[in-house]
TrEMBL record, chain A:
The ABC transporter domain, residue ranges: 11-261, 279-522
Any one of the GO BP annotations: peptide transport
The protein, known as: ABC transporter ATP-binding protein
Family the UniProt entry places it in: Belongs to the ABC transporter superfamily.
Coiled-coil ranges (or none): none
Principal subcellular localisation of the protein: membrane
From TrEMBL, chain B:
Membrane disposition: Multi-pass membrane protein
Position of the signal peptide: none
Gene3D superfamilies per record: MetI-like (1.10.3720.10)
Keyword Cell membrane (UniProt): yes
SUPFAM superfamilies the record matches: MetI-like
Pfam families, alphabetized: BPD_transp_1, BPD_transp_1_N
Keywords from the named record: Cell membrane, Membrane, Transmembrane, Transmembrane helix, Transport
GO cellular component: plasma membrane
Localisation: Cell membrane
Protein's UniProt name: ABC transporter permease
Domain of life: Bacteria
Protein family membership: Belongs to the binding-protein-dependent transport system permease family.
Length: 547, 319
């Protein structure tokens, strides 16, 4: 036990909540969780939102977000109980013995200071090294993490570099003071898959080269399997299963773990596209801004969607997929090209469209939270399109609302709740019901499962597929996630920098030979197996050597 | 610095000039539609119609309004502020010395009030919701809630009369020795400071607290930095834009809103000068004072905008 770095025993964490209708009370967020970590090892903490993984992950820094506080157990770091430390002791530990890499490096860097000043701040503050020495270390880390122009990278401000680079800079910031332990809190979740694989490899190399121990927090089992020695599965603040990465992936013992491993296993037989598309987008070119300063975002985009089928539009951030949705809905009139809907041309501007045009084309958004009026009940939210489009009132409307609630598999008890009283998955279901209430022929789904936990997302996808059968509605499904595409699409359009680089039925698009970009995209999606990362990187380097 | 930022700053500047021009029109038209006739009011009720007509002629009041406007504006652009009706003296020198007095008072008041309010704001954030925070909030709010004449009289009574530290009459004159002058303005400056302190302090506190929720403040906390260092280095630079705005508003108030304080302390500033001449219906003086006040207000707000632009690293260091 001599080389045990971190030993967490019977950790209990509570928070005070202030619900609107009840008196404030304490709830338990983490209940009786124990684990230990040896020097130089990586432990993955995995679970869905609300599992308490970030809360546990921050405990070795004696830090609680919001009103969270540790009320029981021990956190032994380097042989001493850090929960007994006073403010000064805790400050000496943070940034020196334990460092933190946040999910969104873009938000975690201070926009007002240069990267270098921030990267070396903790190192200099704790006296681990002088300013010049710390800068040397930082440049060396920039180089090792594959950042461009390592000598000059630190002179830039956070907004001047990309998200993937910021995430690496944050890793460099954590490594700079040579800590014993780094906490990675969903470090690649906000990145595109093609960027994620590079950052993941950089993090893994850095951990191996420096011999630092790490807690790796994520909701994505396939990602954590690539970097961890051990994995701790959490749910509702309790331990579900704890084992080596290989055991958890290949031989899960608990039902919940098995569900996590087999997530994204929905299969969907593709339908052949028909002759008369419900929506036909022809040679669309669109730009933001006016005149010569306009930024082109869509270049000559053409796609068709057959009635009752799903077209998945896939691409990374900035590829123009959401802009395509804005053009189709009329929010952004295109510069050139035309859109035909159900055999009739669609006006370019939202304001010039008929009420039927509006009704038959509905949208569901990524953030169900912000897409609903927080002061309306579920009944009002779903009833509104019924009143607006069909002039339904009273009992007739209530009966239809009830029907829709049954279709989205939510019971009676939800009708008088407010959005704040629903879970993420339930909110998204209400948004689906609201879209369906208009009896649309096409629903544009913009990253509707991206903000949801994998198991909940699976449920939503199953529901959407089911509803498509019942209502014969077509979907334009915008996503960055290949697994989601496999699960739901009949046809696929791959977008890259405003252009459709590949388009066809699902089997055509996902079968070789691939164009370069689609190949990269497919090869970057983490697979649920140990050693995938190394294989993927080897494949990629062989390909680039071959070219 | 990019060309983009130069363009933004130039735009603000052009907008300021345009605004000032518009205000000059409003002032001129406004003073001209005031009821009553200048010639009549100079000569009094018993004047014969012929005398009034003669005076109107010699004052140029019979010319069309727009001609008089352009003559007035042209004069000001050439540094000629016109002649006061009440005493026939040129307005320029008198107004300049009054403006100098007002700016002198505002300058020393600002020199105390701005740093003091920011430091108090920082301390309030450091001890948020604690005793010190509440004490700072309560005392500055009390100061702002009391009418300024009341604060002025309180200071006169306690500091000037009872303690005898400073004089209660802030009369200054030309060639007054610097220390005497400082002694004279001590109490009005203190009153001004107390009046504007609360807004600036509370805005500093609110703006920093707003930023304290950011992820980068958490990052700083997890680096083991001390609380005051986090506030000063990581929160303050990102909260500067709203703070600059309220500072500029307070500075503007110190220049254009001090009539009451000038009256209480018998301080020969611009405010008193303008109010005196409103009473005398001396329209040219009122117009000139109005224009100068507007210029001060617009300039300070323009500076606030420009500093806000400069404080944004995204604009200062484009991609």
């Amino acid at each position: 036990m001599a080389d045990t770095l971190l030993d967490v025993k019977n950790l209990r964490i509570e928070a005070t909540v202030y619900p609107p209708d009840e008196p404030a009370h304490d709830i338990t967020i983490v209940d009786d969780v124990s684990f230990s970590l040896e020097k130089g090892k990586v432990l993955g903490l995995i679970g869905e939102s609300g599992a308490g993984k970030s809360t546990i992950g921050l405990s070795p820094m004696a830090y609680g977000r919001g009103g969270v506080r540790i009320t029981g157990g021990k956190v032994m770091l380097n042989g001493r109980d850090i929960l007994k430390e006073r403010t000064r002791g805790v400050r000496r530990l943070r940034g020196k013995e334990v460092c933190y890499v946040a999910q969104s490096a873009a938000a975690a860097f201070n926009p007002a200071h240069k990267l270098m000043d921030q990267v070396i701040e903790a190192t200099v503050r704790h006296g681990s090294a002088g300013k010049d020495e710390a800068k040397k270390r930082a440049v060396d880390l920039f180089r090792r993490l594959g950042l461009p122009e390592p000598e000059r990278f630190g002179n830039r401000y956070p907004h001047q570099v990309s998200g993937g680079q910021l995430q690496r800079a944050m890793t460099a910031m954590a490594l700079c003071s040579r800590p014993d332990l780094i906490i990675f809190d969903e470090p690649t979740t906000a990145l595109d898959v093609t960027t994620q694989i590079d950052v993941l490899a950089a993090i893994k190399d850095a951990i191996r080269d420096t011999g630092v121990a790490a807690l790796y927090i994520t909701h994505d089992l396939a990602v954590v399997a690539q970097v961890s020695d051990d994995i701790l599965v959490l749910r509702h603040g309790k331990k579900v299963e704890h084992g080596t990465a290989r055991q958890i992936i290949e031989d899960p013992q608990e039902q919940y773990t098995r569900d996590l491993v087999s997530v994204r296993s929905i299969t969907h037989e593709e339908k052949k596209p028909g002759d008369s598309p419900i929506l036909s987008v022809k040679n669309i070119t669109a730009a933001y801004g006016k005149g010569p300063a306009a930024v082109p975002v869509l270049k000559d985009v053409s796609v068709d969607i057959t009635a009752g089928q799903t077209l998945a539009v896939v691409g990374e951030s900035g590829s123009g997929k959401s802009t395509l949705a804005r053009v189709i809905t009329g929010l952004l009139p295109p510069r050139e090209g035309e859109i035909t809907f159900d055999g009739r041309p669609l006006a370019r501007r939202l304001g010039s469209r008929s009420r039927d045009d509006l009704r038959e084309l509905q949208m569901i958004y990524q953030m169900a939270d912000t897409a609903m009026n927080p002061r309306h009940t579920v009944r009002t939210i779903i009833g509104r399109p019924l009143e607006f489009y069909f002039n339904m009132r009273g009992k007739e409307r209530d009966a239809r609302v009830q029907e829709l609630m049954d279709e989205i598999e939510l019971g009676n008890g939800f009708l008088d709740r407010y959005p704040a009283e629903l879970s993420g998955g339930q909110k998204q279901r209400i948004c689906i019901a609201r879209a369906l209430a208009a009896k649309p022929k096409l629903i544009i789904c913009d990253e509707v499962t991206s903000a949801l936990d994998p198991l909940v997302a699976d449920g939503i996808l199953k529901l959407l597929l089911n509803l498509q059968k019942i209502e014969n509605v077509a979907y334009l499904f915008i996503t960055h996630d290949i697994a989601t595409v496999r699960a739901i699409a009949d046809s696929i359009a791959v977008m890259y920098r405003g252009e459709v680089v590949r388009y066809g039925t699902k089997s055509e698009v996902l079968s070789p030979p691939f164009d370069d970009y689609t190949d990269l995209l497919l090869a970057s999606v983490p697979e649920m197996k140990i050693g995938w990362l190394e294989e993927a990187l080897k494949r990629r380097s062989m390909e680039s050597a071959g070219n | 610095m990019g060309a983009g930022i130069a363009k933004l700053v130039a735009q603000r500047f052009a907008l300021g000039v345009l605004l000032l021009l518009a205000v000059s029109v409003v002032i001129f038209v406004g003073t001209n539609i005031l009821p009553g006739d200048v010639a009549q009011s100079i000569l009094g009720q018993s004047a014969t119609p012929q005398a009034v007509a003669n005076l109107r002629e010699s004052l140029g009041l019979n010319q069309p309004t727009y001609v008089r406007y352009f003559e007035w504006l042209g004069g000001i652009l050439h540094g000629n502020l016109g002649t006061a009706l009440s005493n026939g003296q040129p307005i320029g020198p008198e107004l300049l010395s009054r403006l100098g007095n007002t700016l002198f008072l505002a300058f020393w008041a600002a020199l105390v009030a701005v740093p003091l309010s920011i430091i108090l704001g920082l301390i309030a954030v450091r001890h948020r919701n604690g005793f010190i925070d509440n004490l700072i909030s309560a005392s500055t709010l009390a100061a702002i809630s009391l009418p300024e004449f009341f604060i002025g009289y309180l200071l006169i009574y306690f500091v000037a009369v009872r303690l005898g530290w400073f004089t209660s009459v802030a009369t200054v004159y030309q060639n007054m020795p610097f220390l005497d002058r400082m002694n004279a303005i001590a109490l009005p400056a203190a009153t001004l400071t107390l009046v504007v302190l609360a807004q600036m302090m509370r805005m500093t506190r609110a703006a920093i607290l707003n930023v304290m929720q950011s992820a980068y403040v958490e990052t700083a906390e997890l680096k083991g930095l001390s609380r005051f260092k986090i506030i000063l280095r990581h929160a303050f630079p990102n909260a500067i834009a709203p703070i600059i705005n309220v500072i500029m508003l307070s500075l503007a108030y110190m220049v254009v809103g001090v009539v009451v304080i000038e009256v209480i302390f018998v301080y020969p500033g611009m405010g008193q000068y303008m109010v005196d001449h409103v009473a005398k219906r001396d329209i040219p003086v009122v117009q000139d004072c109005g224009l100068i006040f507007a210029a001060v207000y617009i300039t300070l707000n323009m500076l606030a905008d420009i500093f806000s632009i400069l404080s944004n690293p995204r604009l200062r260091h484009p991609k």
